Amino acid sequence: MGFVSIGDFFFFLPPIFSSSFASSTRSLSFSFVSFSFFFFILMYTLASPSISQKDRPSKEKLYLRFDLWFTPFSQILSQMDKPPLHPHHESISSRWSSVSFKDNKEVTFSDLGSKRIRHGSAGADSEMLSMSQKEIKDEDARLIYINDPDRTNETFDFTGNSIKTAKYSVFTFLPRNLFEQFHRVAYVYFLVIAVLNQLPQLAVFGRGASIMPLAFVLLVSAIKDAYEDFRRHRSDRVENNRLALVFEDNEFKEKQWKYIRVGEVIKVVSNQTLPCDMVLLATSDPTGVVYVQTTNLDGESNLKTRYAKQETLQKATDDLETFDGFIKCEKPNRNIYGFQANMEIDGRRLSLGPSNIILRGCELKNTEWALGVVVYAGSETKAMLNNSGAPSKRSRLETRMNLEIILLSLFLIALCTTAAATAAVWLRTHRDDLDTILFYRRKDYSVRPEGKNHNYYGWGWEIFFTFFMAVIVYQIMIPISLYISMELVRIGQAYFMTRDDLMYDESSNSSFQCRALNINEDLGQIKYLFSDKTGTLTDNKMEFQCACIGGVDYSDREPPEITLKPKMRVRVDPSLLQLTRNGNATEEAKHANEFFLSLAACNTIVPIVTNTSDPNVKLVDYQGESPDEQALVYAAAAYGFLLIERTSGHIVINVRGEMQRFNVLGLHEFDSDRKRMSVILGCPDTSVKLFVKGADSSMFSVMDEESYGDVIEATKKQLHAYSSDGLRTLVVGMRKLNDTEFEQWHSSFEAASTALIEEANASVASDDDDESVALIIDGTSLIYVLDNDLEDVLFQVACKSSAVLCCRVAPFQKAGIVALVKNRTSDMTLAIGDGANDVSMIQMADVGVGISGQEGRQAVMASDFAMGQFRFLVPLLLVHGHWNYQRMGYMILYNFYRNAVFVLILFWYVLFTCYTLTTAITEWSSVLYSVVYTSFPTIVIGILDKNLGRRILLSHPQLYGVGQRAEGYSTTLFWYTMFDTVWQSAAIFFIPLFAYWGSTIDTSSLGDLWTIAAVVVVNLHLAMDVIRWNWIAHAAIWGSIVAACICVVVIDVIPTLPGYWAIFQVAKTWMFWFCLLAIVVTALLPRFAIKFLVEYYRPSDVRIAREVEKLRSFSESQQNMGTEMNQIRDPSRS
């Protein structure tokens, strides 16, 4: 079964395909018994505790709910406890005066005095909140003296602004890099083998030959790591040497970033990147607003607003030299969405929040300049604290492979023990003849008459040495070349995935990206799919469709397109458009106008006016943090409510050709606690109105059901109808405020704004209306489940459901659901999303896929694979996932097979040479066998071979179950391969042995025959399994056989090497060629017969599909031939 996070709507789907999947345990054991038995015990335990969090339910909570439909309410918010607002106040009073200028109307308060607008924190996903909003204790705080870095850094030891992302230095590179590389246990194994071979008593191969393979692998990896770290050093130097304007000696001077200190005042101009985290003091905007782009920080490309305190604006601009104050803030933490601090200035204490700080990496936009004081620098900035990168993931197939490596290690120990034991028996049996026996001769009589022992250490030591010599001789039983081959195959697979035209997105001009090359084959074993919906499935392209206002449905589905001045073209409902043009003539028209006014005003959109080719026409482009808000504002413009200007204190809206100014008396952006957005506007008619938008679950809870019950019921029905059509919904409401209500709220908010009160740490992912599925659970219920040890119950129920939808869930809950599944099953999981709120889910899953959507690139940066459209997931899994898994599984088994064949040939030889571990095959052929003779073909086949075509895989998705059921690689297949290996090695060894028995052939000639025969057999074995031949496959397989023969010839023509001219002596006889033919037939005939019987009488799904594919290709070719014949046939003869 599986989870699909459809959207901010979180989906839990049952297994992609119903099948059993015996997957390996997540806890991996890999043993390497002491240095003499060449394997260690390595235990990986991956435990992801379920994430839970207390929630404080109240009627102020709102779960943001966006479908493609936006449904409003008007004048039915009569029972709110108090209007929740963002601290924005500017020139507010209880009595209004209206001033008209030309077409503009301005409204101001006059009685409450001049009270500035305050800006509260913007809501955001808060899974990473490291500190709740609370009073900052002295031990948890740092003190920054504004414009006094000497005093600041004298009292506290703050870090500098220099950053370092490089891993190594000149002195630490060699030891640290080697330490990291030897975390791969196989490397330790080969290091031990190389060390053993350096001992004179154990030397079997040349000392250089035994070290060369490991040294080559280590050198290549070290060069790659050194180059990557050199690039990091170069990037660090560029970053640290950038220049910034720092206030020193009563003027702003350029200073390198690395020398900036905490407490200094920085000036940033438009389009510049911030060098550190700084609290805003002043901006070029008189209201203190500044616009920033956080693409470098969180991948979001939309503009965000930050604000300077009104109390610091004038002072920081006019008299910065005498600016006296300090900031008491929380210690550095990773939470990019939260900031808690207090500022003391002129005896006043001001509270600071996330809207008052700009983080390192942000870019200043649409603002001439901004001044700020440095609070966090260098490695203590939030950007650097979050610069940990995606977690390291390991292929499931490679994890399973370690079990077979353990089995091969045990088999190797068995071979070495057999060799040592038989040597012991032979030594004891011939102990009286050791001095003179042929080929052994314990004594050397050429030195003195009584003879001298040839390094003979006694019966016990000889057995000990024999065991370790066997370890060295049989070392390639664990193939070091396998790891290199796997990396090369993955690179080749990634190349073809990125070049796949079916996964190329023309709209964004982006190709598929492989960001993690070590888990390609995991794409073919996914059983649980978690998917975000909003943006991922809906592509984040929002368009206003229809509305229900006051219970009246306006949903003309085929309206004519009307081109308006806004940059985006929006379809409108003719009847609703006509209704808005009637002004306030009727109650229905009044509701419609208030609805679109709320869409234009209740948002954080920044209007940008751009020129056109016609100097009399200008287009208004809307930039904001959310594509949902952009769609709403464009819809309002289409109906005659064109947002023209926005500042922290007012907004200007062109209402059907009339410029109207609305004072912003209070603004509360959407946050994770209230789940709503609210704004208080001072309207041109001197009224004060509260506009609120949010999801139906939170909006209905604050409605006056007694007074507006009929409207609520009618709207709920329309919500259900809209959501049934797959549209996203939103509820909008308005309420008039009298002077008493506003003053009561204002005084309460003023008191609350000076204190930091603990808040619930929850966040929101947008959701959709519940649809017809087996199980639906919302965020509040999920918190209860994860908090009360009910995960097992949820998992059991989910396993029996056709699908599970988790609605209105926070990012940490998404990760919790993934962990819930991973901790209770060994099956593979995949998570896909496009927003910053999907990162935790993507990183928690075995495979994470990011989509380049309108919500930024943070999901892409945290993912293992990235693509432009959700629909590309189908070919990625069903086609490339299937291919990658089948190729890699076969390649691993083939590597075990080809090395074991060679080792067993050496073992059989020992049984006929007094168990002395001598070899007939030269040491160079032993080294080159797995590196040159047989490695290239398996890499080529691992990249290019296809057991099935793309079309058959897409048309029969059940074939994906091959990977889920581990049919391409399993312990059973491993043992079948090993039994075949024993037979083939016996055929290769014993046929020449008996053919030349009693002859005068030397061992070197026989060794060359065994070498060439082994190379021919293992390559023909591979050729029998190739499905789709091409010229590269032919060149790789047959070319490797030719290359092996050439190498044997070259080795034998070198006089200083053993076996000089041996190949020429044996190859000129007919027996040599007869033996080769007999070996091939004898070794491969049983495999061919079994392969035929299994595929004919018990064919697999893949085999059946392959036959279907052949028949389909044949049928189509016949049809094409017939079509071609009809086209060229002479009509006169028909």
From TrEMBL:
**Polar residues bias: start-end ranges:** 1115-1126
Cross-referenced PROSITE patterns, in alphabetical order? ATPASE_E1_E2
- The segments labelled Disordered in the record are 1115-1134
Q: Give one Pfam hit by family name.
A: PhoLip_ATPase_C
User: Cross-referenced InterPro entries, in alphabetical order?
Assistant: ATPase_P-typ_cyto_dom_N, ATPase_P-typ_P_site, ATPase_P-typ_TM_dom_sf, ATPase_P-typ_transduc_dom_A_sf, HAD-like_sf, HAD_sf, P-type_ATPase_IV, P-type_ATPase_N
Which intervals hold domain P-type ATPase C-terminal? Answer: 860-1100
Q: What enzyme class is recorded for this protein?
A: translocase
Regions crossing the membrane: 28-47, 185-203, 209-227, 403-427, 463-484, 896-918, 924-944, 973-997, 1009-1029, 1041-1064, 1070-1090
The P-type ATPase N-terminal domain extends over 144-210
Bilayer topology reads: Multi-pass membrane protein
Under which EC number(s) is this enzyme classified? 7.6.2.1
Q: Which reaction(s) does the protein catalyse, per the Swiss-Prot or TrEMBL entry? A: ATP + H2O + phospholipidSide 1 = ADP + phosphate + phospholipidSide 2
Keyword Transmembrane attributed: yes
Q: Does the keyword Transmembrane helix apply?
A: yes
Q: What is its main location?
A: membrane
Q: Which Gene3D superfamilies match?
A: Calcium-transporting ATPase, cytoplasmic domain N, Calcium-transporting ATPase, cytoplasmic transduction domain A, HAD superfamily/HAD-like
Q: Which UniProt keywords apply?
A: ATP-binding, Magnesium, Membrane, Metal-binding, Nucleotide-binding, Translocase, Transmembrane, Transmembrane helix
- Where in or outside the cell? Membrane
The entry assigns this protein to a family as follows: Belongs to the cation transport ATPase (P-type) (TC 3.A.3) family. Type IV subfamily.
The name this protein carries in UniProt is: Phospholipid-transporting ATPase
**Which source organism?**
Brassica napus (Rape)
